[in-house]
Specification:
mainly alpha
């Protein structure tokens, strides 16, 4: 997740120095998609480790974010070849909503401590702050999307700083024959 966020930031920020934005993103768009896949793989790690708790809110939020990141990555990888506006629109909703849900679960479950507790919620809220700037369609909007990549770097760093959780035991499942 750290590598994907850093690459996403560098490639999005590189647009500041591009003379032709369309040509730049035609070349760099697939690499940004690969970086977003790396972020999605990091989120799969959070999901499988029950990093925000094993509850429905945390698992649903992370699953929504993972699907959104996959859609965004596919949209960026195939952008030079076909217009996938529906993928971008779906990802624009799924990723922030998923991280807001996961962030609320992290706060409620007290699974992370210190400043790390607020990072997942911040990753979810940041796109709502960035969206008006991005909608303006200028260079600053693309740079703001790169800053969102730095938020994923921070999320990966927070994940590394937190001690591993105890395995989640799933109760309520029959384990054998019932006593008579």
């Amino acid at each position: 997740m750290i590598l994907g966020g850093a690459v996403m930031f560098l490639l999005q920020a590189g647009e500041l120095f591009a003379s032709n934005r369309t040509a730049y993103f035609a070349i760099v768009g697939p690499a940004i998609g690969v970086a977003q896949l790396l972020i999605a793989f990091g989120c799969v790690g959070l999901w499988s480790d029950h990093a925000f708790g094993g509850g429905v809110l945390a698992r649903t939020g992370l699953a929504l974010a993972i699907v959104g990141l996959a859609l965004l990555a596919i949209g960026n990888i195939f952008e030079p070849f076909v217009d996938l506006a529906l993928f971008y629109a779906s990802a624009t909703v799924a990723i922030p909503v998923g991280f807001v849900l996961a962030g609320i679960a992290a706060l409620r479950n007290h699974t992370w401590h210190g400043w790390e507790r607020f990072v997942p919620l911040g990753v979810g809220i940041l796109p709502f702050v960035i969206l008006p700037v991005y909608a303006a369609g200028n260079v600053v909007g693309e740079f703001a999307v790169g800053v969102w990549g730095l938020a994923f770097v921070l999320l990966g760093w927070a994940e590394l700083r937190e001690p591993p959780l105890e395995p989640v035991r799933i109760d309520g499942q029959p384990r054998g024959r019932r006593a008579r």
